[in-house]
Amino acid sequence: MDNLNMTIDPSCLREAPLAVDVIKQLDVFGIILYSCLTLMAAVSLLVYLEECVYVYKKVPSPKKTTIIWVIGAAPVIATMSCLGLWIPKAIMFTEMTSSSYFAIVVYKFLILMLEECGGEEEFLRRCGKGRFRISTGPCCCCCPCLPRVPVTRRMLTILKFGSLQFALLKTVFCIICIVLWTNGNFDLTDLGITGTAIWINPFVGILTIIALWPVAIMFMHVRNILRSQKIIPKYAMYQLVLVLSQLQTAIINILALNGSIACAPPFSSQVRGSLMSQQLLILEMFIITLVNRLLFRRHYDPLPAADQHEKDNAENATIILHRESGDNMA
């Protein structure tokens, strides 16, 4: 902003620059920063590929497919953020790709908890007499008076569908947004009542909350059963990816739209805010990828049978009865 005539620098109103323009304006610090972030994204991808090979060889189906999907969230987001960092014009596409992949991970994490219990049938046999506590976040954490619902196959199907709808509809909405963008009808910065973004984004937010609720319900039910499978730190990493990739990015974009992030030619405030978000995500997803490697790259032992103690008690009771019968006969 020029202090004399209060005019805006024309470069702050331009669209995102081309990749070659980004490279030309890099100074020594920028070259070092971009190189380190690119190296982190590359290492994240290599660590993920190494994990995939290990899981594919050591873990039986179908659990290995689910694990590969879940551990891929952080490296995929890091890779897409690196592409958006070097090619600012593609940021909208890289963010949509990351969000679509994570929408699938939300559903896959629910399936992972079931498979850690031994599958759907084993889960129902183990927990069929229990009840789900539905007063959990993000929908009903403030409603402890809600009744608990029985663990049935029908209820389990409802929970799975609640997360599956987000994986499907999020991808559909991303495709619709891209089609509208090519026709000039979609702009993330257009928050007017006539803009399409102001209608699509809140609806996607509602779908996100609906999808996260079943995962939270399932986690609260199995967290003690799967404590030996390190389900609590795994769930923490899943939640951390959610907060950083969705909430953090949304906050930075809102600050950029309000002008709280200063323009730095050739980047407008919106583009600069997006680049800051990509840089943070690469570093954060790199750390999460390393932590996930410690959590998932291990030997997978099956859970003990649900009725193991009941069988032992029955056998002990039978032995005692036989001994008592023998003593009486003697």
TrEMBL record:
Superkingdom as given in the UniProt entry: Eukaryota
Membrane topology of the entry: Multi-pass membrane protein
SMART domains: Solute_trans_a
Subcellular location: Membrane
GO CC field: membrane
InterPro entries xrefs: Ostalpha/TMEM184C
Keyword flag Transmembrane: yes
Segments traversing the membrane: 28-47, 67-87, 163-182, 202-223, 235-256, 276-296
Keywords carried by this UniProt record: Membrane, Transmembrane, Transmembrane helix
Primary localization class, coarse: membrane
Name of the featured protein: Organic solute transporter subunit alpha
